[in-house]
Amino acid sequence: MLSLPNLLTLSRIFAVPLLVFLLWPRPTWWDYALAFGLYCLMGITDYFDGYLARANGQISKAGIFLDPIADKIMVASVILLLVFNGTLRGATVVAGLVILLREIAVSGLREFLAGLQVSVPVSRLAKWKTTLQLVALGGLILGGAVPQWAWVHDVGVAALWAAAALTLMTGWDYLRLGVRHMD
């Protein structure tokens, strides 16, 4: 449990309350800037925990369990806070909602299939989906730090919609796989 990859994953989970604090209802540009820095650091640990686990032969059951949870906690927290503080508003909230609902549904599906001893590997498209989600949310956080550059926010919104589209596609793929085992 105390391998470097697992500690990096745990650090992401433990950093979420600080990220939430920085994005709480009326963040200043400075809060957004600090949140963006922390968010980038969390994204870097997301890359390196898996890389180091594979490179050093330290893949563990705890890491396999915790890594997707850390990702979902981070993404869900940021989406909820960006809606709460008004960064995401109007129809763009739907893109965030699509992402949240898919994450919950796929987690439930994985839990169900695990009970049947059916493994559901993460698809390449799902990895792209996660990457696009992280980039989109990072762009939205950065947009709050540099409000004079409205295009940063707009790029974050466009990337969020693209991530929502990939989210629907990968969710559908997982659902089709799961339905085969629901007899």
Structural overview:
The protein has six helices and no strands. By secondary structure, the chain is an all-alpha fold. The protein has a single domain (4-179), classed as Up-down Bundle (Four Helix Bundle (Hemerythrin (Met), subunit A)), CATH 1.20.120. The model has no long low-confidence stretch (mean pLDDT 92).
Give the CA-CA distance, first to last residue.
Answer: 37 Å
Instruction: Report mean pLDDT, rounded to a whole number.
Output: 92
Shape: globular
Q: Could you estimate the helical fraction of the residues in percent?
A: over 70%
Total count of domains? 1
H/I helix tally: 6
Please, what is the CATH homologous superfamily?
A: CDP-alcohol phosphotransferase transmembrane (TM) domain
Strand/helix succession: HHHHHH
Low-confidence stretches: none
CATH class: Mainly Alpha
Task: Give the topology.
Layout: H1 4-23, H2 29-55, H3 61-84, H4 92-115, H5 124-145, H6 150-179
Helix pairs in contact: 1-2, 1-3, 2-5, 3-4, 3-5, 4-6, 5-6
